[in-house]
């Protein structure tokens, strides 16, 4: 059975070199997979309109059984030139929408979104030492009087 998580990383700063280690598969990491850069190469043409190219970088990936805490830890440890411009969007298979993480100090911290709550939940993932459970939480829309209007 699969459990797919989509991840989008945005950066308006000069952070291109920071993500280079994660553009290739490395089975020594505690999360499996790699990212592709969607603002260059064959994808870049889709972003260019009226002769203007993007002034940001966007990396994307889809991961099966993602160890989200390990990914966030590894992303936070990268040598970002401008960490304040980095936004990480993560959508777990059962989440109602993407969650948002941004740097607070040297850590990537989830930013609370109006009308949503993260419900505690674990999911199985495979790391370099085999299968284990990690806390991932489930991002749900609030309903009724709990919802933000």
Q: Can you give a write-up of this model?
A:
By secondary structure, this protein is mainly beta. The protein is built from 1 helix and 10 strands, in the order βββαβββββββ. The protein has one helix at 68-76, and strands at 4-11, 36-37, 57-64, 86-91, 99-104, 107-111, 116-119, 122-127, 130-135, 138-141. The strands form 3 sheets. It has a 6-stranded antiparallel beta sheet. A two-stranded antiparallel sheet has the order 7-10. A hairpin with a 7-residue loop joins β4 and β5. The model has no long low-confidence stretch (mean pLDDT 88).
- Strand neighbour order, sheet with most strands: 2-3-1-4-5-6
Query: From N to C, what is the helix and strand string?
Result: EEEHEEEEEEE
Shape field: globular
Poorly predicted runs? none
Number of strands: 10
What percentage of amino acids are in beta strands?
Answer: 35-45%
């Amino acid at each position: 059975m699969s459990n797919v998580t989509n991840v989008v990383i945005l950066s308006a700063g000069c952070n291109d070199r920071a993500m280079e280690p994660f553009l290739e598969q490395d089975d020594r990491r505690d999360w499996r997979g790699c990212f592709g850069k969607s603002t260059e190469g064959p994808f870049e043409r889709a972003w260019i309109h009226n002769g203007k190219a993007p002034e940001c970088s966007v990396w994307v990936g889809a991961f099966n059984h993602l160890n989200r805490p390990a990914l966030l830890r590894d992303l936070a440890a990268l040598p970002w030139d401008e960490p304040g411009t980095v936004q990480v969007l993560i959508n777990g298979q059962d989440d109602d929408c993407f969650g948002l993480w941004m740097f607070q100090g040297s850590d990537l911290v989830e930013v609370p979104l109006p009308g949503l709550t993260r419900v505690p939940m674990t999911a199985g993932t495979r790391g370099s030492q085999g299968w284990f459970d990690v806390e991932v939480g489930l991002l749900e829309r609030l309903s009724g009087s709990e919802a933000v209007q």
